[in-house]
Amino acid sequence: MKQSVKMIVGNWKMNGVSASLEQAQAIRDAVAGSGGARVVLCPPATLVARMADLLDGGGVAVGGQDCHAKPSGAFTGSISAEMLADAGATVVILGHSERRTAFGETDAEVAAKVEAAIAAGLEPIICVGETLEQRQAGDAIAVVSDQVAGSLPDGLSERVFAVAYEPVWAIGTGLTPTLEQIAEVHAAVRVAIVARLGEGARTAPILYGGSVKPENARDILATAEVGGALVGGASLKAADFMPIIQAAA
User: Fold this and answer.
1) Tell me, which fold does domain 6-247 have in CATH?
2) Residue 68 falls in the annotated catalytic set
3) Is 103 helix (H, G, I), strand (E, B) or coil?
């Protein structure tokens, strides 16, 4: 699973309606002539199928933002991994800090969702990260290492996947860890991945996700063990997202 290019993932979160597909098309058109990065857009579930149709064959993959651990059932409002795959998604974000914080998702629940994703043929991006309080207490490395150990199921050992490090305190705040802090945590995440799944997982990309912007993307993406970026607000508009993609080249 050798990674030759950076992976740049746009997480639209709870943003986007039909008109927003124009931005996805603009990103597709720009990516077609740029090269140098693997690009994924993760829109809200209402847009997955339409975006997948729009971007088909255009060099930009489509992913979901979450999935249920069960393939079907009486889970009103939930979406299964099979449903995402059927809609055209090939990737899914799991264990995002907002899911862990706002919905109380545990490592075990995230691991169950990862198993569901790989059973459906989706490539999971598993998110880990510490709060400001945990960082200030000196617990950042221990927290993310424990999350990796608890959120990555055995079934991942022979699969394609990514881990995303999200310093929770940097998301949407404009704050960004220093490059040294990013490198330190990414190195620890790598150690935790290999400890959990073995040497075969050493090349799984570790994405950085925490207020990635055009002005800081190049330095972050050049940092040791940063295999790409998980981008939030800056991925909603092609004019903001493309400089980040180009910084990965």
Assistant:
1) TIM Barrel (3.20.20)
2) no
3) coil
